[in-house]
C-alpha cells in the first residue's frame, strides 16, 4: 500500500507511510478470499490520486506558482515535484506550495466498491501447478523433488512479496497433500494432535525446489489498478498436482488427503 500511495502521489516510497490494523482508522476490506490487496489498493490509489489532483489544482490557481494558469492535465508529478510534462524545468514541490500558502497539511479521502461488472466476469487470480515426486517402491515414502507454479494475478504490485506468498501457499499445499491430518481419539473425545508439536507440517527438510512464475495480465475491470490477490491460489492446486504425480509414479489413484504410505503400498 505504501508503494501504491507513492506511485499515485509521485513521491519516493520511503516518504510515504501506510497505517492499518487499528480500530481508530477507517474500516477496510477483510483480508479474506484473496481480496485484500485488490480492494485496499483501490481505495488507497483513489485517495492518493485525489490528493495529488487537489494539490495540482491549487498550484494552477495560485498566482505565485510557476504553474499558474497551466492545464492541470499537462502537469505531472515526480519525486514530490509538480512540473509541466513538456517543460520539466517549470514547476515546484508540494512543500513549496504548502509553505507559501501557510498550510501545515492537506488531506483527501478515497473509497472503492466492486463494479457491477464483477457479476459477469471471473475476477480471481488463475494459475497452473506442476509437481515432480519420487516414491520408494518398498517403503512407500514420498519425496517431492520439485514444484512449479505459474500464476496470473493481474498487475503485480511487488514481485518479491508476491513470489514469497505464492511459494508459501505451494508448501502449504504440500503439507495438505502428504502430512497434515488430525484424528479424534474415541476414548477421550479429544484430537490426537493437540499442538503443533504433534501436528505434522512441512519443514525446511521437506521443502523441494520451488519455482514461481508471474504472468502480468492487464485487467481493466477488476479495480482501478488491475490488482488481484495471491492469498490462496498458491495452495489450491498444489495437492492435486502432487496426487497426480503420485498416480503417474505408482499407478495408484488416491482420492483423499493426505496421501499416506498405506495408500501407496
UniProtKB/TrEMBL annotation:
Residues 1-208 form the Aldehyde oxidase/xanthine dehydrogenase second molybdopterin binding domain. Gene3D superfamilies: Aldehyde oxidase/xanthine dehydrogenase, molybdopterin binding domain. InterPro entries: AldOxase/xan_DH_MoCoBD2, AldOxase/xan_DH_Mopterin-bd_sf, N-heterocyclic_Hydroxylase. Pfam families: MoCoBD_2 (PF20256). PANTHER family: ALDEHYDE DEHYDROGENASE. This is Molybdopterin-dependent oxidoreductase. It comes from Streptomyces endophytica.
Amino acid at each position: 500500500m505504501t508503494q501504491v500511495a507513492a506511485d499515485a502521489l509521485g513521491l519516493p516510497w520511503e516518504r510515504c507511510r501506510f497505517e492499518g490494523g487499528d480500530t481508530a482508522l477507517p474500516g477496510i476490506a477483510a483480508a479474506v478470499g484473496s481480496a485484500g490487496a485488490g480492494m485496499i489498493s483501490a481505495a488507497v490509489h483513489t485517495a492518493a490520486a485525489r490528493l495529488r489532483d487537489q494539490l495540482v489544482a491549487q498550484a494552477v490557481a495560485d498566482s505565485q506558482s510557476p504553474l499558474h494558469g497551466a492545464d492541470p492535465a499537462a502537469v505531472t508529478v515526480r519525486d514530490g515535484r509538480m512540473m509541466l510534462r513538456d517543460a520539466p524545468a517549470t514547476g515546484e514541490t508540494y512543500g513549496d506550495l504548502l509553505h507559501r500558502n501557510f498550510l501545515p497539511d492537506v488531506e483527501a479521502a478515497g473509497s472503492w466498491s466492486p463494479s457491477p461488472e464483477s457479476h459477469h466476469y471471473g475476477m480471481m487470480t488463475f494459475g497452473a501447478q506442476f509437481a515432480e515426486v519420487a516414491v520408494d517402491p518398498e517403503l512407500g515414502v514420498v519425496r517431492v523433488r520439485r514444484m512449479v507454479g505459474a500464476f496470473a494475478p493481474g498487475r503485480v504490485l511487488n514481485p518479491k512479496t508476491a513470489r514469497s506468498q505464492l511459494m508459501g501457499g505451494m508448501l502449504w499445499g504440500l503439507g495438505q497433500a502428504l502430512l497434515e491430518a488430525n484424528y479424534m481419539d474415541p476414548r477421550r473425545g479429544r484430537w490426537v494432535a493437540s499442538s503443533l508439536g504433534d501436528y505434522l507440517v512441512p519443514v525446511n527438510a521437506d521443502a523441494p525446489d520451488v519455482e514461481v512464475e508471474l504472468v502480468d495480465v492487464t485487467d481493466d475491470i477488476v479495480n482501478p489498478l488491475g490488482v488481484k490477490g495471491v492469498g490462496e491460489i498458491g495452495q489450491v492446486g498444489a495437492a492435486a498436482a502432487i496426487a497426480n504425480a503420485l498416480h503417474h509414479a505408482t499407478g495408484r489413484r488416491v482420492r483423499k488427503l493426505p496421501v499416506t504410505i498405506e495408500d501407496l503400498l
